[in-house]
User: Fold this.
Amino acid sequence: MKQTLIIANWKMNGSILANSKLLTGMLKFSNTANTELVICPPFPYLHQVKEYIVGSNIKLGAQNVNENNSGSYTGEVSADMLKEFYCRYVLVGHSERRSLFQESNGIIAKKITQAMDAGLTPVLCIGESLAQREKGDAQSVILEQLSCVINDIGLKKFKSVVIAYEPIWAIGTGQTASPEQAQKVHRMIRQYIYGLDPILSKNISILYGGSVNEINAAELIKQKDIDGFLVGGASLKPDSIETICKLKI
Ligand code: 13P
Assistant:
């Protein structure tokens, strides 16, 4: 059976002191949780987090990676560098990167290739805006985001990708998708993949993200096609992330 995957996306939050308090709290429960827990801190704190989690069940991830291997890309970070800093996962195509940093599906596909070539597991983030949902375009937007990447990197490579469905209207708004709304989209994603490769559709992890917290997570995780969470705000609160990681699945 697939292990439930919980990814903590700290976004641009934290400090050496705040991180050490949070990590001390997380280490207390990490070995008893039912889940694979991944922390994605801002780049400058990768080493600090690695020092804390070494020897524990917690894994390290990054929030972004550049689509090139190396060279004159001031301010950017390569997949090989992340690997050297013990990252196992990297978020790719988060909606904040798509909207604030103009990341296209084409760039996202290149980032996924870089990540995989370095031995990292890419977490492909997809999801529709409120306007797209209200226009009835959610499904076509999501399938376009998925198919662009699959067509670019090929189905064989796509087998190692984790998918995170994050409806943009639910991110940081406190307005989570209802379990039924989330399940409907997750099922649609899994069916799409079933059409390409039935075995992959069973094995691939599809995470939900968007205002997940210690209260709504219990119902969301009961949904058949939700395999874990990508958590923003609640991952900065030790008690909240502990409850989410210890849910009975
Ligand atoms: P929130 O959990 O704060 O809504 O953030 C979700 C998210 O964007 C995780 O990547």
User: Anything to note?
Assistant: The pocket of 1,3-dihydroxyacetonephosphate is lined by residues 9, 94, 166, 171-172, 209-212, 230-234 (CB under 6 Å). The radius of gyration is 17 Å. The chain is about 45% helix and 15% strand. Strands lie at 5-9, 36-40, 59-62, 89-92, 121-126, 162-165, 206-209, 228-231.
